[in-house]
Automatic annotation (TrEMBL), chain A:
Residues 99-121 are annotated as: Disordered. It is found in: Cell membrane. It comes from the Bacteria. InterPro entries: CPA3_antiporter_subunitC, NUOK/Mnh_C1-like. This is Na+/H+ antiporter subunit C. It is a multi-pass membrane protein.
TrEMBL record, chain B:
Residues 787-910 form the Na+/H+ antiporter MnhB subunit-related protein domain. Residues 684-772 form the MrpA C-terminal/MbhE domain. The lineage of its organism: Bacteria, Pseudomonadati, Pseudomonadota, Gammaproteobacteria, Alteromonadales. InterPro entries: CPA3_Na-H_Antiporter_A, MnhB, MrpA_C/MbhD, MrpA_C/MbhE, ND/Mrp_TM, Proton_antipo_N. This is Monovalent cation/H+ antiporter subunit A. The keyword Transmembrane applies. It comes from Glaciecola petra.
Amino acid sequence: METVYVICVGVLTFCGVFLCLRGRTFSVVLGLTMLSYAVNLFLFSSGRLSLNGAAILGMADEYADPLPQALTLTAIVIGFAMIAFVVILAIRARADLGNDFVDGREPPDTDKLVKKEEEKA
Amino acid sequence: MSLFWITAILLLGVLVPVLTERFGRTTTTICTMFAPAVALTYILTLLPEVLSGGVVIEYLEWIPTIGLSLSMRLDGLSLIFALLILGIGLLIILYARYYLSEKEAVGRFFAYLILFMTAMLSIVLSNNVLQLWMAWEVTSISSFLLISFWSAKTESRKGARMALTVTGAGGLALLAGLLLVGDIVGSYELSVILASGDLIREHALYPVALILILLGAFTKSAQFPFHFWLPHAMAAPTPVSAYLHSATMVKAGIFLLARMYPVLSGTEMWFLIVSMTGLITLLIGAYVALFKHDLKGLLAYSTISHLGLITLLLGLDTKLAAVAAIFHIMNHAVFKASLFMAAGIIDHESGTRDMRKLNGLWRFMPYTATLAMVAAASMAGVPLFNGFLSKEMFLAETLHSSALGFLSWVIPVLATLAGIFAVAYSMRFIHDVFFNGEPIDLPKTPHEPPRYMKIPIEILVVLCLLVGMFPEFLIGNLLSSAASSVIVGELPYYSLAIWHGFNFPLLMSVVAICGGLLVYTYRRHLFKFQARFKDSDEKLVFEQTIQRLVNKATAIHEYFNNGSLQRYVACMLVFAITITAVPLLNLNTVKRHLPDQAISGVEITAAIILCLSAVATVIYHRKRMLALVTISVVGLITSIAFARFSAPDLALTQLSVEVVTVILLMLALYFLPQKTASESAPSRVVRDLAIAAGVAGLVATINYAFITQPLDTISEFFLANSKTGGGGTNAVNVILVDFRGLDTLGEILVLGIAALGIFKLLSRVRLSMSSANENGLPWSEDSHPPILTMISQSLLPLALLVSFYIFLRGHNMPGGGFIAGLITSVALIQQYIAHGVDWVKPRIKVDYQVLIALGVLIAALTGVGSWFFDRPFMTTWFDYFDIPFIGEIELASALIFDLGVYLTVVGATLLILANLGKLTSVHRPTAEE
């Protein structure tokens, strides 16, 4: 089971990093979201994987490690705040700069670019 | 009174001129002089103690736990410097009153001056090398402010910048050197360092420390090849120049050399570097001074030359040389200050400092001329003036030096040569300005300055004369006490008499005076010869070098900071891969300790769905809506995974966050372009795939490495104390609100700050929205479907009830403030979605910002509350109560803390989403593109 779990974390990291390296804000946001899943799973697994062992006293014979869970719980909420912040930053950038590029160039208007591609297709 | 008061009073004195400026120049001047006068008086009361060989050392504990304390020291060396700084400083203040005009910011000027004085005094009175260094840097900064006082002039700004750059860079070297010394000795206290000279000199790092400290001293004292900043600091108002060149600033470097003399000197390296630097500076300064047409320029180079002389003395390997150095420090300060002030008067009253125009001023200002002549004679080393005495000692010591072995004869010869030039430029200062024909079109008709402007010069000139004639009587004690704090062991015998009989030094003096007169007489030939050299402008060279540096730095900066997030992320990740991968390469001991647990079909299916939808998100990331659907599948599976692996709290949190995130992203989609054009070059895609694979491989490897190790956790404590200490059976929640409550407080604070940041970002944002979806279909006008409206309305109370229940049970069962807050938020946001902002707004009259503040406040106050019961911050309390009809219930302060968490989460989430959602209604349907 550990092997499969680790593979899943790896795949999520892979997808997250790749999306973060794209040149548009929305892809970066998707990438960050994906990365935060990966990171949360990664951190959580430091308490090892245990089945039917929720850390509620009296409910199981052997408890899962509650500490990584508590840390991950706040990480999830903070992760949301971070993603929300990035999203709003992206919207603000789009409003102020007129595009959603993050690769540092001064591009023509994004929507025109999309239209052009549609015409080509 | 204590030595610390001196700094304190002077620091307060910085404010005085600023506050009294509006009462006029004279009042300001008098008030400004108060603080230095008090300090001077106090130091004079300590005079007998120090002169009798005592050293006043005072400590003030600052941060004792890390061994930092402030300490002050007043010994003979500090004493003469303190007297010079305060005494000449007072005269400078008086002089500046008349030098600066009514229109100038006198208050600001005096404030800078006092600040500078404070810094200088702190250097000389410091008993801790770090403290000394701090003051050293303050002198650099305050001298920058003083030099650039006339900031409207380009040369002032450039000169100030140059001084700051050179002395500031030297200051950094000094810091490194002092840290090394401190490290070698094991203490930064000067009294300890001064006692461990042998330890330092024999240490392997001694050469490094020595060179670094010398760099600091040489840059400050304008020694070759760092001398070029000093002439450009001339752009300062003359009182500043007079002060910088005599008792302060450039003397700080000399002071440092003298201070560290007992510790650093005594080695071949010290003698060679210090004496050679001094000799070169002495010669260059004296030679160049002769050719300067600017009055202050001449004096500036003569300062450089005299500083070289003192440095040379400190670098000679005889004890007497050190005595002579200290003697010359005092003499130079006195005559140089008076000469600068005289130059300032000439400039002030005639409108120019150009010696080609200034001629025959004797007729206009005979009194000033007399004063200047005395001072200049002292500078030239004419008998009966103080400069003669120390110069005589200097010449005598050059004869005794054996620093250069068999070539040591070079030193006295070159010293005499420099003496010749010193006489020549002193002659020029007097003859060219006060005699030598008639003035050539001066901007003003020169006249004697106001009475009080001359007083400072008079005092100094009288000192020149008195010291020159009665040296032993006036300063014998002062000099011997200063010398004994520089020289280790017995003071050598010396006599401060004017007449030592016919001897070799006297001959050298005579040669210098006669040679100087000859050189001056035939100066035209020399000038003609000098004119054949190309005039090199140090300022230009300096500015070019700086510009080149800046260009290089900008180029590097722009390469890495080109505005492309992709590049930053790529660089960062590659770096992260490297530093993580390298240790892994050497890690061969990772053995699997635990076998994999058995896996069931459910888990395999979930894993496959997770991976597939993640990959699908990547593949379809340009079709944004589709990508959103696939990524939400990933989130869902993640929360299921949490549930499966015994983390119900996490599962609940992840699930509710998932809902909020998807709503957020959908709103974002509305404002962002609907589609992404494919624009990555194939090579870029390959590169990114490689980076992603690298990072993912590493993360997975590390994860696998630790996940298969036996668990060694500190959580036993939490599990054991959760019920007894925290009063709840849900260990995760107890950790959050009790054991690690402070972390959670920080966490909700961050959440609140993020929400407020978003609120700010969204205020007055101007958005253009597309009026149609990605396929060109216009948005539906029917924005609120009735079925959703009806259902959501009836769901609301239910949802709120559920969240209340989850909140209450959180301490004992999965749930708690975070999860309840998210559920409440989702329920409320659903109302926004179903009815629109306009409908909700009048019905929910809650200010979300207030909600956040309230939440954080409640959580923090719960923590503070424990202080009232004499417990540490955040101690929780709980107890059980028996309430009729309901039964035994538990009341815990943690519940109130959790309420704070709950409120913050609700406030933050709604602030973010409602604000973003509001934009859709306010602007709609104005968009067109």
